[in-house]
C-alpha cells in the first residue's frame, strides 16, 4: 500500500482498501433510511503533528483520484497547510490551490475558509476547532485530532455533535498505527 509513511498513519481504512468499488471511483454516500444520504465522519486522533497528518491524508486521497476540500479556519492555518503540502514529502507534489483560484475547477485539493459555492468534492478535511459549516454536502468529513488535551477536548465536543446528528462516526488511532 504505498510508502511506509502512509501505513504509519493507518489510512487504508479511508482510502478504499478492500472495498467493492473500482479503484479511483468516488466513495459513495452512506444511505439514510429516510431515502437521502448522510455524511460519513472519520476521526484520525493522536496525530503527533496535525498538519503533517493532514498532508499525508491529502496526498493519499489525491493519489487515489479523490477531490478534497480543506477547511482552514484562518489565513495562518491555510498558509501553514499550503506550505507543508510543498515540503512534507521530498520529491512529491500534491496539486492544490485556494478555492478562489482560477485553477480551482481543475485542481483536486482546494483550501478555503468558506464552504459556499464550491464545486462538488468527495471529502472535506476540517482543520478548524469547530464543526465546519455546510459539511453535510460532502460524502465524507475527515477530522484530525492532535495529542494536546485542548485539541482532544474540542474533538470530543465535535464527536458528540456528529453523533447527536445520527451521523456514522469512526475513530482511527494514529498513535497506535505509528508504533
TrEMBL record:
GO terms for molecular function: DNA binding; DNA-directed DNA polymerase activity. SUPFAM superfamilies: DNA polymerase III chi subunit. PANTHER family: DNA POLYMERASE III SUBUNIT CHI. It comes from Candidatus Dactylopiibacterium carminicum. This is DNA polymerase III subunit chi. Pfam families: DNA_pol3_chi (PF04364). It comes from the Bacteria. GO terms for biological process: DNA replication; positive regulation of DNA-templated DNA replication initiation. InterPro entries: DNA_pol3_chi, PolIII_chi_sf.
Amino acid at each position: 500500500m504505498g510508502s511506509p509513511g502512509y501505513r504509519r498513519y493507518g489510512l487504508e481504512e479511508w482510502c478504499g482498501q478492500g472495498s467493492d468499488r473500482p479503484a479511483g471511483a468516488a466513495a459513495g454516500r452512506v444511505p439514510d433510511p429516510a431515502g437521502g444520504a448522510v455524511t460519513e465522519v472519520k476521526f484520525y486522533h493522536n496525530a503527533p503533528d496535525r498538519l503533517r497528518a493532514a498532508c499525508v491524508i491529502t496526498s493519499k486521497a489525491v493519489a487515489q483520484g479523490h477531490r478534497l476540500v480543506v477547511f482552514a479556519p484562518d489565513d495562518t492555518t491555510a498558509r501553514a497547510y499550503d506550505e507543508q503540502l510543498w515540503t512534507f514529502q521530498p520529491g512529491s507534489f500534491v496539486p492544490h490551490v485556494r478555492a478562489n483560484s482560477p485553477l480551482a475547477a481543475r485542481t483536486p485539493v482546494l483550501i478555503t475558509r468558506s464552504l459556499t459555492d464550491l464545486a462538488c468534492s468527495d471529502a472535506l478535511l476540517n482543520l478548524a476547532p469547530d464543526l465546519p459549516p455546510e459539511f453535510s454536502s460532502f460524502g465524507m468529513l475527515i477530522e484530525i485530532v492532535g495529542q494536546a488535551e485542548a485539541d482532544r477536548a474540542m474533538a470530543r465536543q465535535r464527536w458528540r455533535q456528529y453523533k447527536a446528528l445520527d451521523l456514522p462516526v469512526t475513530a482511527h488511532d494514529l498513535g497506535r498505527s505509528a508504533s
